[in-house]
Amino acid sequence: MPAATGAPPAAPAATGAAAATPAAPATAGEDAIAARLAAAEKRAAELEKRLEALEEAQAAPEHDDNKDLFRIYGFVDVGVQRTWVPENSILAVTLPQANALNFVVANLNLYLDAQPSDHFRFLGELRFTTAPGGAPVPATTPLPPDVTRRVTTAPYEAFDSTATSLTSPVTYGGLVSIERAHIDWTRFNLFKVRVGQFFTPIGIYNVDHGSPVLITTVIPTFITARLFPTRQTGVMVYGSMFTGPWELGYNAYVSNGRNENAPFAFDDNRGFGGRLHASYEDPGKLTLKLGTSFITGRARDWVADYKVGQSGPDVHSTWSFQEYTGAGDVSLDIGTTRLRAEAAVIRVVYDEGKRQRVSNFYTPDAWKTSTYAVAAHRFDFLNMEPFLIGSAIHVPLYGGQDTVLQFGGGLNFYITPDVTLRTQVLRTIVTALREQSTVAPDLRTTSAVARLVMAF
User: Fold this and answer.
1) What CA–CA distances, in Å, run from 447 to 82, 83, 205?
2) What are the residues whose beta carbons fall under 8 Å from the beta carbon of 422, sequence distance 6 or more?
3) What pairs with residue 183 in β-bridges?
4) What confidence tens digit (pLDDT) does each residue in 199-209 have?
5) What per-residue confidence (pLDDT) applies to 435?
6) Are 50 and 423 in contact (CB under 8 A)?
7) Can you tell me the distance from the alpha carbon of 202 to that of 294, in angstroms, rounded to the nearest whole number?
8) Which of 32, 40, 139, 172 has its CA 20 to 30 A from that of 180?
9) Distance between CA atoms of residues 414 and 418, nearest Å
10) Vertex 77, ends 74 and 79: CA angle to 5°?
11) How far apart are alpha carbons 139 and 131 in whole angstroms?
12) Which residue has the higher pLDDT, 164 or 4?
């Protein structure tokens, strides 16, 4: 009985033991799950690291053998041309090749394109020319008694003084022109930075200047007259954004100003400019681009005069002026019909006593205007594209003339995507809208040009 009496108190202990027995497997299961979770998290972390390393390798060009870090490409156009000018006219001084059929190498341009990292890019463009070979220069030989001044062409050949042998052949070479050379930071679409020498962001032709992308063979006088600086050396910010079907963009820059005299500045006066543009595209049907540009800056020369009685040179300028340029452009493609037009208004104001002198002519303050329009349509037949062009410049010229008119047309054949045959005939007339001088020279010319253009 005592044993039976003592049994009931033992039941709770047994019950407690029974409760403790199933608890052990439950703890072991939680530990196993926790261990598996930890292992999975570790594997996930390792996979994430491997994925990050893979993404970094793809994003970093220096570790990606399949990405081009440096590319060289370009274009060349060669062909034949003839320019007709009045015999023994003043144009003969600048165009010794006039009134003769000439085979020519017009352009040979190479692009150096490097992108060592995602957000930095270098673009350089070099043009190889035969200049100054054949350029008119003052003659150095003794002149006949009745000749006061003689101009002749510079020899195309030159003795190579660096050659190791006196019997080495002469060299036939020219210059290498830096068309552009700049580094761009392109992290954000709306804010990019360009540093170096770049084409002035004005209009159509001055930016898309390469022969393969142009419609005409001859560059419009809108560009070649250099009424505004075509290149700048400085800093530019630019960018674009989309709003609905439109892309809106801008350019703003500060530079050394005009580069004709030197790529550097003679003083702390800077050149400034900018451009706003908008474009709309309905692929295959219509593309419209609109732009407006503004440029301002000072231009001057630099001379150093050494005078008797002075210990040092007198450094100054013989001419200087302030210029302001406003321009607009429109580009419209409707199917295979292309229309291009640009116009610019320039105001030039000379400083007191600092006017440029051309012969006996002092350049006045002036309003200068320039415009052109091009219309082209591409046919499936022979993949050809006829075009028409007209242009006008109004600016004070030698002999009292003030206007240059050009009109003409041509025919382009797109042989392959990389090879094009371009032809053009252009008539140039120099006249006066105001009262014409009685001694104005005859500056009318006619040019016929054919170019085979290849991009590579």
Assistant:
1) 6, 4, 20
2) 77, 211, 216, 217, 410, 412, 413, 449, 450, 451, 453
3) 122, 195
4) 999 999 998 88
5) 60
6) no
7) 8
8) 172
9) 8
10) 165
11) 17
12) 164
CA distance 414 to 384: 6
- Cβ neighbour number for residue 311 with a 10 Å cutoff: 4
What type of residue sits at position 244?
G
pLDDT tens across 77-96, in order? 999 999 999 887 777 778 88
- Asked if 433 and 404 touch (Cβ cutoff 8 Å), the reply is no
- Residue 153, exposed/middle/buried by CB under 10 A (0-12, 13-18, 19+)? middle
What is d(CA 120, CA 233) in angstroms, rounded to the nearest whole number? 19
Residues in the chain: 456
On whether the CB atoms of residues 215 and 376 are closer than 8 A, the answer is yes
pTM for the model: 0.79
Considering only CA atoms, give the Rg of the chain. Answer: 36
| Least confident window among 189-193, 335-339, 352-356 | 352-356
Query: pLDDT tens, 234-268?
Result: 999 999 999 999 999 999 999 999 877 788 999 99
Residue keyed to tokens 């994430």? 48
Q: Residue 10: what are its φ and ψ, rounded to 5°?
A: -75, -20
Query: What tokens does 221 get?
Result: 């006088």
HSE-up (13 A, CA, CB side) for residue 232 = 27
The per-residue pLDDT for range 15-49, each reduced to its tens digit, is: 444 444 444 455 666 777 777 777 777 777 777 77
Burial class (CB in 10 A: 0-12, 13-18, 19+), 376: buried
407 token code pair: 């009109």
Residue 36: both structure tokens together? 């598996």
Q: Look at 17-21, 193-197, 212-216, 422-426 and tell me which has the smallest mean pLDDT.
A: 17-21
pLDDT at 428 over 80: yes
What average pLDDT does range 273-293 have in this prediction? Answer: 95
The residue behind tokens 């027995």 is: 21
Quick one: average pLDDT of 426-437?
Answer: 79
